[in-house]
Amino acid sequence: MIVEGHAWVFGDRIDTDLLAPGYAIKKSQEELAKHCLEAVNPDFAPSVRPGDIVVGGANFGLGSSREQAASSLATLGIGAVVAKSFARIFYRNAINIGLPAVTLDLTADIETGDFLKLDLEKGTLVRDADGYQRVVEPMAPHIIDILKAGGLMAQLQQRLNP
Fold first, then answer.
1. What's the CA gap between 96 and 12, in Å, rounded?
2. How far apart are CA 23 and CA 25, in angstroms?
3. Strand 80-83's sheet: what is its strand order?
4. What is the mean pLDDT of the chain?
5. In terms of pTM, does the model score above 0.90?
6. DSSP class per residue in 93-161
7. Going by C-beta distance under 8 Å and a sequence separation of 6 or more, which residues neighbour residue 119?
8. Distance CA 106, CA 119 (A)
9. Average pLDDT over every residue of 102-120
10. According to the CATH classification, is domain 2-160 in 3.20.19.10?
Protein backbone atom coordinates (compact mmCIF):
# COMPACT_ATOMS: atom_id res chain seq x y z
CA MET A 1 0.00 0.00 0.00
CA ILE A 2 1.68 3.17 -1.22
CA VAL A 3 0.60 6.76 -0.57
CA GLU A 4 2.09 9.57 -2.67
CA GLY A 5 1.45 13.27 -2.37
CA HIS A 6 2.58 16.65 -1.20
CA ALA A 7 3.23 17.27 2.48
CA TRP A 8 1.21 19.67 4.62
CA VAL A 9 3.22 20.28 7.77
CA PHE A 10 1.59 21.27 11.06
CA GLY A 11 2.99 21.53 14.57
CA ASP A 12 2.21 19.90 17.90
CA ARG A 13 -1.21 19.49 19.47
CA ILE A 14 -3.42 19.77 16.41
CA ASP A 15 -6.75 19.08 18.09
CA THR A 16 -10.10 17.81 16.88
CA ASP A 17 -11.58 21.33 17.06
CA LEU A 18 -9.07 22.43 14.44
CA LEU A 19 -9.78 19.39 12.26
CA ALA A 20 -13.58 19.54 12.61
CA PRO A 21 -14.59 22.91 14.09
CA GLY A 22 -17.55 22.81 16.44
CA TYR A 23 -19.33 25.68 14.66
CA ALA A 24 -19.51 23.55 11.49
CA ILE A 25 -20.12 20.14 13.05
CA LYS A 26 -23.81 20.00 12.05
CA LYS A 27 -23.01 20.60 8.40
CA SER A 28 -22.66 17.73 5.92
CA GLN A 29 -19.31 15.94 5.98
CA GLU A 30 -18.36 17.62 2.69
CA GLU A 31 -19.16 21.08 4.07
CA LEU A 32 -17.44 20.35 7.39
CA ALA A 33 -14.28 19.26 5.56
CA LYS A 34 -14.06 22.69 3.90
CA HIS A 35 -13.30 24.11 7.37
CA CYS A 36 -10.63 21.53 8.28
CA LEU A 37 -7.54 23.24 9.72
CA GLU A 38 -8.65 26.68 8.48
CA ALA A 39 -7.70 28.27 11.81
CA VAL A 40 -4.10 27.12 11.28
CA ASN A 41 -3.83 27.36 7.49
CA PRO A 42 -6.80 28.87 5.60
CA ASP A 43 -5.36 27.58 2.30
CA PHE A 44 -5.30 23.94 3.42
CA ALA A 45 -8.80 22.66 2.59
CA PRO A 46 -9.20 24.47 -0.73
CA SER A 47 -5.68 23.53 -1.89
CA VAL A 48 -5.21 19.94 -0.72
CA ARG A 49 -5.13 17.29 -3.45
CA PRO A 50 -5.98 13.58 -3.30
CA GLY A 51 -3.07 11.60 -1.86
CA ASP A 52 -1.51 14.54 -0.02
CA ILE A 53 0.04 13.71 3.35
CA VAL A 54 -0.50 15.61 6.58
CA VAL A 55 2.64 15.78 8.72
CA GLY A 56 2.01 16.61 12.37
CA GLY A 57 3.92 16.94 15.57
CA ALA A 58 3.19 15.52 19.01
CA ASN A 59 -0.29 14.49 20.16
CA PHE A 60 -2.00 14.91 16.79
CA GLY A 61 -5.78 14.68 17.08
CA LEU A 62 -6.13 15.33 20.79
CA GLY A 63 -9.45 16.51 22.16
CA SER A 64 -12.89 15.11 21.71
CA SER A 65 -13.57 11.68 20.31
CA ARG A 66 -15.43 13.02 17.28
CA GLU A 67 -14.87 10.79 14.30
CA GLN A 68 -15.47 13.78 12.04
CA ALA A 69 -11.91 14.97 12.74
CA ALA A 70 -10.39 12.04 10.86
CA SER A 71 -13.28 11.98 8.37
CA SER A 72 -12.65 15.60 7.40
CA LEU A 73 -9.11 14.71 6.34
CA ALA A 74 -10.32 11.64 4.45
CA THR A 75 -13.11 13.62 2.75
CA LEU A 76 -10.51 16.08 1.47
CA GLY A 77 -8.56 13.15 -0.01
CA ILE A 78 -5.66 13.07 2.43
CA GLY A 79 -3.75 9.84 1.76
CA ALA A 80 -2.15 9.51 5.21
CA VAL A 81 -1.29 11.34 8.40
CA VAL A 82 2.27 11.05 9.69
CA ALA A 83 2.86 12.47 13.17
CA LYS A 84 5.33 12.30 16.03
CA SER A 85 2.51 10.90 18.18
CA PHE A 86 -1.27 10.59 18.07
CA ALA A 87 -4.08 10.91 20.53
CA ARG A 88 -5.26 7.31 20.87
CA ILE A 89 -8.88 7.92 19.89
CA PHE A 90 -7.88 9.88 16.76
CA TYR A 91 -5.53 7.07 15.73
CA ARG A 92 -8.29 4.45 16.09
CA ASN A 93 -10.84 6.64 14.33
CA ALA A 94 -8.43 7.19 11.43
CA ILE A 95 -7.75 3.48 10.96
CA ASN A 96 -11.45 2.65 11.38
CA ILE A 97 -12.40 4.94 8.49
CA GLY A 98 -9.48 3.77 6.31
CA LEU A 99 -7.11 6.71 6.79
CA PRO A 100 -3.51 5.56 7.40
CA ALA A 101 -1.94 7.06 10.54
CA VAL A 102 1.81 6.54 10.89
CA THR A 103 3.94 7.46 13.88
CA LEU A 104 7.16 9.20 12.79
CA ASP A 105 8.66 12.57 13.72
CA LEU A 106 9.19 14.49 10.48
CA THR A 107 8.39 18.08 11.43
CA ALA A 108 12.07 19.14 11.47
CA ASP A 109 12.91 17.40 8.17
CA ILE A 110 9.91 17.91 5.88
CA GLU A 111 8.43 21.15 4.58
CA THR A 112 4.99 21.88 3.24
CA GLY A 113 5.05 21.12 -0.47
CA ASP A 114 7.66 18.34 -0.36
CA PHE A 115 6.51 15.38 -2.46
CA LEU A 116 6.52 12.20 -0.37
CA LYS A 117 6.12 8.51 -1.09
CA LEU A 118 5.03 6.38 1.88
CA ASP A 119 5.05 2.59 1.58
CA LEU A 120 2.94 1.30 4.46
CA GLU A 121 3.81 -2.37 3.95
CA LYS A 122 7.57 -2.00 3.47
CA GLY A 123 7.85 0.73 6.06
CA THR A 124 9.60 3.46 4.08
CA LEU A 125 9.05 7.15 3.51
CA VAL A 126 10.97 8.92 0.74
CA ARG A 127 11.11 12.60 -0.25
CA ASP A 128 11.10 12.71 -4.03
CA ALA A 129 13.33 15.77 -4.53
CA ASP A 130 16.49 14.45 -2.91
CA GLY A 131 15.90 10.82 -1.94
CA TYR A 132 15.74 11.61 1.79
CA GLN A 133 14.48 8.40 3.36
CA ARG A 134 13.17 7.31 6.74
CA VAL A 135 12.29 3.89 7.99
CA VAL A 136 8.79 3.53 9.37
CA GLU A 137 7.52 0.59 11.35
CA PRO A 138 5.51 -1.38 8.79
CA MET A 139 1.83 -1.54 9.60
CA ALA A 140 0.51 -4.84 10.93
CA PRO A 141 -1.15 -7.03 8.28
CA HIS A 142 -4.56 -6.80 9.95
CA ILE A 143 -4.34 -2.97 9.88
CA ILE A 144 -3.31 -3.04 6.22
CA ASP A 145 -6.35 -5.25 5.54
CA ILE A 146 -8.63 -2.67 7.20
CA LEU A 147 -7.06 0.17 5.21
CA LYS A 148 -7.25 -1.74 1.90
CA ALA A 149 -10.93 -2.45 2.54
CA GLY A 150 -11.59 1.26 3.06
CA GLY A 151 -12.13 1.05 6.80
CA LEU A 152 -13.42 -1.26 9.49
CA MET A 153 -17.10 -1.13 8.48
CA ALA A 154 -16.24 -1.66 4.82
CA GLN A 155 -14.11 -4.66 5.80
CA LEU A 156 -16.99 -6.09 7.83
CA GLN A 157 -19.37 -5.60 4.89
CA GLN A 158 -16.94 -7.48 2.61
CA ARG A 159 -16.72 -10.34 5.09
CA LEU A 160 -20.47 -10.59 5.53
CA ASN A 161 -21.26 -10.28 1.82
CA PRO A 162 -18.42 -12.01 -0.04
1. 23
2. 6
3. 101-103, 80-83, 53-56, 2-9, 115-119, 124-127, 133-135
4. 95
5. yes
6. HHHHHT--EEE---TTT--TT-EEEEETTTTEEEETTT--EEE-PPPPHHHHHHHHHTSHHHHHHHHH-
7. 1, 2, 125
8. 15
9. 95
10. yes
Q: How far is CA 158 from CA 81, 120, 141, 148, 161, in A?
A: 25, 22, 17, 11, 5
Residue 162 has pLDDT above 80, yes or no: no
Q: Are strands 101-103 and 115-119 parallel, antiparallel or unpaired?
A: unpaired
Contact between 36 and 45 under an 8 Å Cβ cutoff? The reply is: yes
pLDDT at residue number 99 = 98
Q: Identify the band that residue 137 occupies on the pLDDT scale cut at 50, 70 and 90.
A: confident
For the chain, the first-to-last Cα distance in angstroms comes to 22
Closest of 37, 7, 34 to residue 19, by C-alpha? 37
**pLDDT tens per residue, range 59-71:** 999 998 889 999 9
Domain edges within the chain: 2-160
